[in-house]
Write a structure and sequence with these properties.
Elements lengths: L2 H17 L14 E2 H11 L5 H10 L5 E3 L5 E4 L20 E6 L3 H7 L1 E2 L6 E3 L3 H9 L4 E6 L1 H6 L5 E2 L5 E3 L1 E2 L4 E3 L4
Antiparallel strand pairs: 1-3, 2-3, 4-7, 5-10, 6-9, 7-11, 8-9
Helix pairs in contact: 1-3
Pfam families: PTS_2-RNA
Organism: Rapidithrix thailandica
Family: Belongs to the KptA/TPT1 family.
């Protein structure tokens, strides 16, 4: 598969494993897993011709590590970002003192009024580095990087989780824990 095909397939997998499994008639279990064989069968019926080798390639080469197989590679799921109800089974973790969130310039005023909210997702997504946050922010226009005082939040009783692909997750971030990055 070329890069364009891999990206297109990754986006489709994100759709069905994070948001709309019913699109191709699959079901996610309570932890977000679905059987690989069923996924391949339903994708092929839907017109998204894919073989097991190609699925492994997408999972292995996805630069954001969005997907994971279980130990014996019979199940697959998205690592985070679901809008459907799942319990990913992550345990609370102590975060670094500072994490980062990328957003678009037009959202900054609202964020500093209300904080960061998960909206239709399960969690707010945070990065350990500004470069990753900047890439996320670019998807929303002119990027703005927000520093999250995650260490202080943790001391104040907020829970944090880290997904299998290294994305930090939390329920919400009140505006008092946010600072605009000086490295604009």
């Amino acid at each position: 598969m070329n890069e364009k095909q891999t990206t297109k397939l990754s986006k489709f997998l994100s759709l069905v494993l994070r948001h709309q499994p019913e699109t191709i008639g699959i079901q996610l279990d309570e932890n977000g897993w679905t059987e690989v064989a069923t996924l391949l069968e339903k994708m092929n019926k839907y017109g998204k011709k894919i073989h097991l080798k190609q699925l492994h390639e997408v999972v292995a080469t996805n630069n954001k590590k969005r997907f994971a197989f279980n130990g014996d590679q019979t199940l697959i799921r998205a690592n985070q970002g679901h809008s459907v109800k799942v319990d990913l089974g992550y345990s609370p973790q102590q975060p670094p003192e500072t994490l980062f969130h990328g957003t678009g310039h037009r959202s900054v005023d609202s964020i500093f009024r209300t904080g960061l909210e998960k909206r239709d997702r399960h969690h707010v997504h945070l990065s350990v580095d500004e470069q990753t946050a900047r890439k996320v922010g670019q998807r929303h226009g002119k990027p703005v990087i927000l520093e999250v005082l995650s260490g202080q939040m943790y001391k104040d009783g907020f829970e944090f989780f880290v997904s299998d692909n290294g994305v930090w997750l939390t329920e919400k971030i009140p505006a008092i824990y946010l600072r605009k990055s000086e490295k604009e």
